[in-house]
Structures are given as structure tokens and as C-alpha cells.
């Protein structure tokens, strides 16, 4: 009888702990999502490096792109861009002078078709931060 009571109390305490943890975490996760969805610094196309302006123009022309990964789906795993269904965002490399690889600079655009994106974002630090591009 005592074992049954102890198990019931432990279950109740465990459920309360899980509920409390979820209630504490959920607002933080929602806040992070909505914070990043609406609060970006903005950068005009004219302020971007010349290589980024070239990439931006290629996006609207549909290429040709210099790297195989250009135009592939960007998963937004960092959740720094507004949350959308998988496949909404595509990433494009911004050439970095003197870099032996693709470097850290990218433009990520969202919308369909890819040649008419609804919004584009620039990152110079490999997805650690984004600035919304205004034409």
C-alpha cells in the first residue's frame, strides 16, 4: 500500500516538474522565434559588398551560380529567420575575396519561385546573424 502511494506521489511530482519546465521554456522559445521574425537590422542593397550585390542580381536572374550549393534549401535550423515550411528558404554564396572555400558570407532568400523571393537576408558570419536586404 505504501509503495503505491509513493509511486503516485512521484508521478504527480514528476508531472508537475515537467509541466513547470514546459511552461517556463515554451514562452522563451516562442519569444525567440517571434523576436527573430520581426527584429532584424536592415541593410540596403547599395550598402552590401559588391560580391553580395552580384549574387543578389544572379538570384533574380536564376543564375548561373558559381557554387553547386547555391540555390539549395536552407533549413533555418538556427531559427533566426521567420519560421516557414521546409523548402521556403534557399541559400546562395557571396564570394569572399582571397578565400579558398565558400567563405562565411551568404544571402538567404525565401519565397516561390526562387527568382521572385519575398524577402532576402544577408549574413557575413555564416548564419550567426542576419540583416534583411532592402532594394
Automatic annotation (TrEMBL):
NAD recorded as keyword: no
InterPro entries noted in UniProt: N1-like (IPR000026), Ribonuclease/ribotoxin (IPR016191)
Keywords, in A-Z order: Hydrolase, Nuclease
Any Pfam family: Ribonuclease
Name of the protein this chain belongs to: Ribonuclease N
Organism, as annotated: Comamonas avium
Amino acid at each position: 500500500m505504501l509503495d503505491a502511494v509513493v509511486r503516485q506521489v512521484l508521478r504527480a511530482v514528476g508531472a508537475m516538474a515537467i509541466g513547470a519546465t514546459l511552461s517556463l521554456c515554451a514562452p522563451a522559445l516562442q519569444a525567440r522565434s517571434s523576436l527573430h521574425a520581426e527584429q532584424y537590422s536592415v541593410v540596403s542593397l547599395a550598402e552590401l559588398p559588391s560580391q553580395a550585390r552580384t549574387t543578389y542580381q544572379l538570384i533574380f536572374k536564376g543564375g548561373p551560380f558559381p557554387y553547386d550549393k547555391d540555390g539549395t534549401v536552407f533549413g533555418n535550423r538556427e531559427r533566426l529567420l521567420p519560421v516557414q515550411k521546409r523548402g521556403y528558404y534557399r541559400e546562395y554564396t557571396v564570394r569572399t575575396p582571397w578565400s579558398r572555400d565558400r567563405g562565411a558570407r551568404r544571402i538567404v532568400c525565401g519565397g516561390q519561385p526562387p527568382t521572385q523571393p519575398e524577402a532576402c537576408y544577408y549574413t557575413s558570419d555564416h548564419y550567426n546573424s542576419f540583416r534583411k536586404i532592402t532594394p
